């Protein structure tokens, strides 16, 4: 298999720049934008592992830091869903304008509070977002109004030992009117650090995106 094309990109938004890593396998089926609730998204070992699995399935990725290093030092900023959503929408618009990606179906992979931003952005963009996957996310923070407007097929992945987050995901799941699935990974805690659990997350995410990322 030919290697992916990797490119460090800087996306201007308001008075900052979103730094991201764009990776496209040959003839990509689509592209998945990663939304994370902290500034570590682009360097997150878990996100990078999931991205590699998606590359193997022919899916491109954009891993990016929705928060600057300074912003991420303020813990409350990680819960500023409106800010995260705004920057994800700007990044999505950038992807739709770039020559290498403008024709590709788009999906979102959200982790932590980034899952709420992914769902808010999907609600705003409707049919333009083909699929959403949440890993250990807080979809409840998207708010009922946004949840009830999501059209994108949505997969919520939660660790079986992450009891509080399971309940929050169940509440959000009940609000979603779209094609949806709530998948509880046995034995996993919030960060999916247990043997085999992150691999199962990546496998299920790859299957979901492969099924729904279509023009």
Quick gist of this model?
The protein has 215 residues and is α/β, with parallel strands linked by helices.
Strand and helix map with partners:
Layout: E1 5-13, E2 16-24, E3 31-36, H1 45-56, E4 60-65, H2 69-72, H3 81-97, E5 106-111, H4 114-125, E6 131-135, H5 144-147, E7 154-159, H6 163-175, E8 180-185, H7 197-212
Parallel strand pairs: 3-4, 3-5, 5-6, 6-7, 7-8
Antiparallel strand pairs: 1-2, 2-4
Q: Your description of this structure?
A:
The structure is a single chain. The chain is of the alpha/beta class. It has seven helices and eight strands, in the order βββαβααβαβαβαβα. Strands 1-2-4-3-5-6-7-8 form an eight-stranded mixed beta sheet, with helices on both faces. The longest helix is centred in the middle third of the chain and has 17 residues, at 81-97. The radius of gyration is 16 Å and the shape is globular. The model has no long low-confidence stretch (mean pLDDT 93).
Mean pLDDT: 93
- Total strands: the figure is 8
Helix content: 25-40%
Structural class: alpha/beta
Distance between the termini: 24 Å
Please give the order of strands in the largest beta sheet.
1-2-4-3-5-6-7-8
Low-confidence stretches: none
Outline the biggest β-sheet: 8 strands, mixed
- Taken from the alpha-carbon principal axes, the silhouette is globular
Count every helix, treating DSSP H or I runs of 4 or more residues as helices.
Answer: 7
Strand content: 15-25%
Radius of gyration: 16 Å
Please trace the helix and strand order, writing H or E for each element. EEEHEHHEHEHEHEH
């Amino acid at each position: 298999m030919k290697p992916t094309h990797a490119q460090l990109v800087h996306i201007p938004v308001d008075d900052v720049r979103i730094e991201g890593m764009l990776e496209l396998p040959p003839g990509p089926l689509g592209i998945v934008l990663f939304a994370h609730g902290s500034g570590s998204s682009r360097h997150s070992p878990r996100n990078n592992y999931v991205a590699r699995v998606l590359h193997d399935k022919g899916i491109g990725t954009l891993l990016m830091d929705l928060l600057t290093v300074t912003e991420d030092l303020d813990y409350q900023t990680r819960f500023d869903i409106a800010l995260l959503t705004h920057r994800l929408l700007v990044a999505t618009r950038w992807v739709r304008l770039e020559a290498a990606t403008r024709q590709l179906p788009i999906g979102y992979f959200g982790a932590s509070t980034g899952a709420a931003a992914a769902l808010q952005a999907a609600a705003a963009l409707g049919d333009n977002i083909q699929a959403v996957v949440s890993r250990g996310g807080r979809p409840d923070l998207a708010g009922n109004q946004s949840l009830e407007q999501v059209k994108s097929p949505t997969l919520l992945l939660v660790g079986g030992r992450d009891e509080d987050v399971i309940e929050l995901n169940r509440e959000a799941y009940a609000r979603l009117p779209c094609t949806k699935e709530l998948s509880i990974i046995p034995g996993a805690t919030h960060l999916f650090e247990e043997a085999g659990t992150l691999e199962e997350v990546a496998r299920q995410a790859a299957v979901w995106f492969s099924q729904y990322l279509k023009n």
